[in-house]
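Priority: low. Protein: TetR family transcriptional regulator. Input follows.
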Amino acid sequence: MSDESPPQMTRIQKRNRELILEGALTAFAAHGFRGSTIDQIAESAGLSKPNVLYYFDSKDEIHRTLLTAQLDMWLAPLRAIDPEGEPLEEVLRYVRAKLDMSRDYPRESRLFAHEVMQGAPHLNEILGGHLRELVEAAVGTIRGWIAAGRLAPVDPHHLIFSIWALTQHYADFDTQVRAVLGPGHDPFAEAGAFLDNLYRRMLSP
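Result:
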């Protein structure tokens, strides 16, 4: 087996990979994995189809690359929950981080939603492995806070599920939210105030 490291990509190669992933994100978020094609990805990236296939062997590989990077980003705030921190503020900070991600990365959120609704064929191993481990660590921390009387009693799993649902909704159903609210509203600012009040009232011991 060779001990040589893989060759470093040039600046142009890195740029082309970024263009392809950006183009794929646009296509997948709009059409889902099944409804997107390499031709659509190439057109969105401003590259030729052979150029796309030079960097990625298949649509599946592009999709997995995007999902893996997205999941790493999505899990960062969960990893950042500090067992030694102030419990209520740690939970509220997590809520705010998830809402900010929905505001700043709506296409990524919709990409993930598409994948899960299809049965998560590209993420099953990660969802049942690494994600579950991280959630269980957070659940253990929350249970410890509750046992110490530092948070009101709640089911920690469903607390986390509710945070996901109540924050990612604003990305996945952005059109519906804005249509119902009408002009003159900032959905994310209003949601931030509402969710802070909701969880503060629910979790204060």
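The chain has ten helices and no strands. The CA atoms of residues 138 and 151 lie 14 Å apart.
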